[in-house]
Structure formats: structure tokens, C-alpha cells
Amino acid sequence: xxxxxxxxxxxxxxxxxxxxxxxxxxxxxxxxxxxxxxxxxxxxxxxxxxxxxxxxxxxxxxxxxxxxxxxxxxxxxxxxxxxxxxxxxxxxxxxxxxxxxxxxxxxxxxxxxxxxxxxxxxxxxxxxxxxxxxxxxxxxxxxxxxxxxxxxxxxxxxxxxxxxxxxxxxxxxxxxxxxxxxxxxxxxxxxxxxxxxxxxxxxxxxxxxxxxxxxxxxxxxxxxxxxxxxxxxxxxxxxxxxxxxxxxxxxxxxxxxxxxxxxxxxxxxxxxxxxxxxxxxxxxxxxxxxxxxxxxxxxxxxxxxxxxxxxxxxxxxxxx
Length: 320
What we know:
With 320 residues, the chain is mainly beta. It is 10% helix and 42% strand. It has helices at residues 3-18, 256-259, 307-313, 315-318; strands at residues 20-26, 29-36, 40-45, 52-57, 85-90, 106-110, 113-117, 126-134, 140-149, 155-165, 170-174, 191-193, 204-206, 210-214, 223-227, 231-238, 241-248, 262-266, 271-276, 280-282, 287-297. It has a 10-stranded antiparallel sheet, with no helix packed on it. Strands 5, 10, 12, 15, 18, 19 and 20 form a 7-stranded antiparallel sheet that branches. It has a 4-stranded antiparallel sheet with strand order 1-2-3-4. The radius of gyration is 20 Å and the shape is globular.
């Protein structure tokens, strides 16, 4: 064995030893797996999915939404919101986007990596895979999402990852770098509305650099907005815990929904942070991949929803 190979093996063994993966029952499902490095933890289930049902600090609150009445169940004939983090295809259309994920998935554990593979969907001929890699220490997770075209024909779609956040927090996202007039004359990004988007709703807060959407369990009016940012990110502050998801978008490619890489939605039940990949023509047997990086942060206090305060607290955690 070469010296370089030995070092690589030692690093892999250290990461594997630091990340603990154990089978456990969770929320009524008997076949779940807890992934933890001693600081943060995730829970995935193989009874349905692929989905990440729990995410947060070890022993702390679940930052992800859980629909209590849908936990522990499987085999439903209709798509279930259920909660957690899931993988869809866009643009949104029935019934393709809402293909069922109510059955068992296969799990493969390779050191510190958990791979969840769904059977080929009857509705679409697609097969979805979620690969979770937790850092050996610290607060980061990489989640790779793969969609394979198992049909005999080319299909065009966009990978779309949706994370349902628990009630009572605030979703945050940032725009591309701002400029000045008349120096910067060209537009930088779309800001896309849905027919039900209402900017008079008090759950919205806009600053020059940032957009906030507050989740209100007492307000069931749906709200949604989307935009494009090469450095796509969304954050959610629940109490003093902050969850961040990041994705690198490619401005040279075509994205759905008038060219958006980030979308956020809320109603009375949850708030969603969504990243969207480019529309891709996927040949039979080929796979498209969409990668997010997650991070978790404690004791985060935002004193005011202003550019200065968000630059101070959130921007250093998001990076560029």
C-alpha cells in the first residue's frame, strides 16, 4: 500500500469511527437509522422514502416538520406530505411530481455514508436516490440527490429538493450581490410570484440584500416566492437554532419556474426551503445529481431584520 493510499484509508476509518449509524425505531416506523457525530443528528427511515425525517442537534429539537397523523404509516394510495426532507422532480405537475414515496427503500451503509434507494416509480419510470454524508465532527452534512431515468426514452426534468421546516420559525434567503445605478444597468436575477403570492402579507420582510418569510401556525393562507442566485442558500431560524442549506447553481443553464434555483413556501403547517436544479434532458439509464450542503448552528440571535444585522449574523455562516 502506498503512503497516500494509507493516509486516505486512515482518514476514511477516522470519519467512519466518528460518525455513528445505528438502526432504531422512530415515530412509529421500526426500520429507521440515526446518524450522528456526537454534535448533530439525522434520522432516516427505510419504511418509506427516501426522506430525512429528523435533523438537529443531538438531543435537541427536530428542525424538520413532522405530520403526526402520517408518521409510522406506509403504503398509502395517495401522496403524503409527511414532513422532513424529500426529493421531487420539477416543474410541478400532477401526477408526475407527486409520485408516491410511501413504500420501503433499500439502504446501503458504507463507512460514514448512508445511501437510500427507492424502487423505480410506477408513475414516472424514475428512480430516486439520497446519499447522506455527515462530517466526522462539527455541524455539516452533504446530501447528494440522484434521479435515474429507468425508462426507454429521454426525459427532461429538474431535480428539486424540498425541506419542510417545523412551525414557528423564520425562513431567510439572500439575493445576488447588489449594485448601484447607473453603474449596474443589467438585471441580476428573477423574482418570481405565484397566483396566490401576496406581498401585503405581513409574513414577508424584504431588505436590500435579503428576503424573510415568517411561518405562522395561525395563518393558513399559502405564500410562495422564488429567485435565482448562483450561490443559492436558504436558512431557517427556530428559536436560537439555525439550519442552512446551500447549493451551487449554474447561470449558464436553464432552470424551471422562469429560471429559479431557490423557492420558499409556507402555510399554517410548515415552511419549506427548496433548491432547484437545471432542466436536464436525461437519456435512458442515465442519472442527474443535485448536491446540497447543510449546516446547523446554535445560539443564534438576530436582533433586527436588517441588512446590517443579517450581514453580521448570517452572512459569515453562509459563506460565498
